[in-house]
Structure formats: C-alpha cells, structure tokens
Specification:
This protein is mostly helical. The chain has a single domain, classed as Hypothetical protein af1432, CATH 1.10.3210. It has helices spanning about 5-20, 30-45, 50-60, 65, 70, 75-90, 95-105, 120-135, 135-145, 150-165, 170-185. Helix 2 (about 30-45) crosses helix 8 and helix 10 (about 150-165) packs antiparallel against helix 11 (about 170-185). It is globular, with a radius of gyration of 16 Å.
Length: about 190
C-alpha cells in the first residue's frame, strides 16, 4: 500500500470507528491520527529523524485499536506493529518496515524508556502531544461513552498529565505552554 493509499485507508477506518464508538460526535482522524502524524513529522524534522519511518508509524500507531477497540485497546501497540508489516511491507525495505514496527510497538512507552530511537521518540511524543492539544475532542468522546462532565474532566486531567510526563524533555519544552493551558482550563472549570 502506498503512503497515499495508507493515508486514505486509515482516514476511512477512523470514520468508521467514529460512527460506531461516538455516534459521529468525535473525529479521531482529524483530532488525533492526523494531528499526531503532523506533529511526528515536525519533530522528525526538528530532531533529524527518518521522516519516512516516522510518517508511516504515526499513521499506523493506533491502527489495531481503530479496527477493533474492544479487542485490542490494551495490546494495540503490539498488534498494530504486526498489522503494519502487512500494510506497508511491499512499499518499504524490510529494515524500514522493522523500524516502523518498533516505533508502533513502543509508542506508548515514551521518555520513560531511554533506549528509544529518535524515530520512536518522535512517534511516542506526537501521540502524547496530540492528547494535550485536543481537550474538547477527548471530553466529547468521554461523554459520548456515558461519562458525566465532571468524570470526563477528571479523566482528561489525568490523561493529559500522564501524556505530558511521558514526552521527552525537549518536546516537553516545546509544548509546555499548551500543557499548562489545558490543565489550567480543566482545573479552572470549577469542579475541582
């Protein structure tokens, strides 16, 4: 699958996911996958990473969860890495496919793992930054799944703090204002 075909495939699968999981209220493609992809490419340029590996991995980092959330929510990084080989194996050399798989497999670990390659760091950081930048969509998704405003807000604060703490230090510095603004807005909501 070419990168453009992959892009279209992931976008379509996100739309199907949104229609089923949030009654169309959220936009996983626009507010997470596409944003993580763009942030990952930005970080790849900033840090001198292989943009091709980073781009493919960012597009596919949540593919297993998108295809079957209930089944793969907790293991999506492992299953998604396996799926990536089938989706991109014909278009990239085997060593790049393996690196894309490693980026997907490790995107949940973040800065806590010092042995991440710069490409893995770009994908993990972009995934986390995307959460920080999309508070409204996260709240909408949480409430569409039955949570109250108060519970959704508490969950968002916890998720944003966890996401920020897993980001590498240089990326934390780049997005510190966004993080502080998100937390301040949520905590200033008057519920806490």
């Amino acid at each position: 699958m070419t990168k453009q075909q992959l892009y279209e495939y992931v976008r379509e699968k996100c739309r199907e996911f949104d229609a089923q999981s949030s009654n169309g209220i959220c936009d996983l493609w626009e507010y997470h996958i596409l944003q993580a992809y763009n942030i990952a490419l930005y970080l790849a340029e900033k840090y001198g990473a292989d943009a091709e590996v980073v781009g493919y991995a960012a597009l596919l980092h949540d593919i297993a969860k998108i295809l079957d959330y209930e089944k793969y929510e907790e293991t999506h990084h492992e299953v998604g890495a396996q799926m990536a080989a089938d989706l991109i194996g014909a278009d990239l050399p085997p060593e790049k496919v393996a690196h894309v798989q490693k980026c997907i497999r490790n995107h949940r670990k973040g800065a806590a793992v010092e042995t991440l390659s710069i490409e893995e760091t770009c994908v993990a950081d972009a995934d986390a930054v995307s959460i920080i930048l999309n508070v409204p969509d996260y709240l909408a998704w949480s409430m569409s799944n039955g949570n109250s405003v108060a519970d959704a807000t508490k969950a968002a604060i916890k998720k944003i703090k966890k996401s920020f703490n897993k980001i590498s230090k240089p990326t934390q510095e780049m997005f510190a204002e966004n993080y502080e603004s998100a937390i301040k807005t949520l905590e200033g909501h008057g519920l806490f």
